[in-house]
Hints:
By secondary structure, the chain is an alpha/beta fold. It is built from 20 helices and eleven strands. It is 53% helix and 12% strand. The strands form four sheets. Strands 2-5-8-1-9 form a five-stranded parallel β-sheet, sandwiched between helices. It has a two-stranded antiparallel sheet with strand order 3-4. Strands 6-7 form a two-stranded antiparallel sheet.
Amino acid sequence: MSDLTPAEIVKELDKYIIGQDKAKRSVAIALRNRWRRRNVDAELREEISPKNIILIGPTGVGKTEIARRLARLTDSPFIKVEASKFTEVGYVGRDVESMVRDLLALSINMIKAREQESVQAKARAIAEDHILDILLPEPKDRPDMGADEFIDVSSPSPSATTREKLRNMLREGKLDNRYVDLDVPEKSMPMVEIFSSAGMEEMGINFKDILGNMMPKGGGKKRKVKVTEALEILVQEEAQRLVDMDRVITEAIEKTEQSGIIFLDEIDKITGKEGGSGPDISREGVQRDLLPIVEGSTVTTKYGPVKTDHILFIASGAFHVSKPSDLIPELQGRFPIRVALNSLGKDEFVRILTEPRNALLLQYIALLRTEGVNVAFDDAAIETIAQVAEEVNNHTENIGARRLHTLMEHLLEDILFDAPDRNDKNIIIDRAYVDGKFRDIKEDEDLSRYIL
Ligand SMILES: Nc1ncnc2c1ncn2[C@@H]1O[C@H](COP(=O)(O)OP(=O)(O)OP(=O)(O)O)[C@@H](O)[C@H]1O
Ligand SMILES: [Mg+2]
């Protein structure tokens, strides 16, 4: 787990998210606290529960973005769940537990990938030997192997030196274009994956086993593949074989329990303030179902039980209509840290357009450069775009920084369309250009509702 200090975490977040300093500080502290907790004596450690956070703020101000970036920073398993999805038709209470299962599955994949990476060298060595066996079968050991039609071996019993020569040729890539016969495993059908993750687990049905039994045994069939491809297939196979899955699972469960983070988006949509009587019951029902998971309980998964006591929950919501105090009291108590995010105005928009590593302007500049077109934005133009964004947000609906996306798309539409056919490959976007694009629309409120 990463041991970044709170200041370092904030600094990393600053590379992508403008402002929202309080929110960044809170998530940084929460993250650091888990690291601290792990260094506390075992007895007390069990008593320290995570301080879950609610991020409160209007739409498009960076709530999800902060959580997303946080996930990439730490190497903790992290998933984002829309709380509102549990209110959908067909929802059954136990489905909320699926978020813990998903988190574990993710954790397993992370660790498995890491382990497979660490056995690459060994797997490659084994795979190489396997290829050599196929290219140069030893007559005694492998009577049923096909004759060595590809290699002209002069001595009747291939000696160790021939094998080593061949190995060198293999490494130098001289055999790359040869073909070998290989048992290629059948790809498991993707459909099966969909089934097995969609709630079949609770029913104790393993579709893969059922379907697997229906299919012919003995793995795949022999196929002619190029040596390079064969090597890759065998390395993958070996890497999978070398990884001790039991250990991976044990570690993944430990990691999920100790450093997992669940981002519960749209939590305000499960408060019961708005609407009539019907949906309210189900929303409060969802809160009740969430409660044990947030408070700490044990969720059964096909890999074994997972305790949720120390999973960190970061909830987020606009809370326009409802307030955090509309959540059921038990749930409020589990989210002691509340952070309000600021709504964004012109000054922030200027910075969001230009400063982040993935800033929108940089993205468009890079896209157009692939066509040989160089666009540049002068300062006045950027100011104007930010200004228009603020105005449109004020006049129509405030969608925060998302407004910049719609504005930029409209602003650059002609250029994006014409780029391949343009003669003039250098374009400077100035205030006049921006004004020209937005003047009419901005003044017509109805029009801006549709276009911007
Ligand atoms: N403070 C910010 N700095 C940089 N970019 C931002 C900021 N706020 C929002 N953005 C941009 O706006 C987009 C939408 O932001 P985000 O998804 O975080 O909204 P949100 O706060 O989660 O809103 P919602 O309540 O609708 O889920 C992001 O993809 C990001 O590019
Ligand atoms: Mg969001």
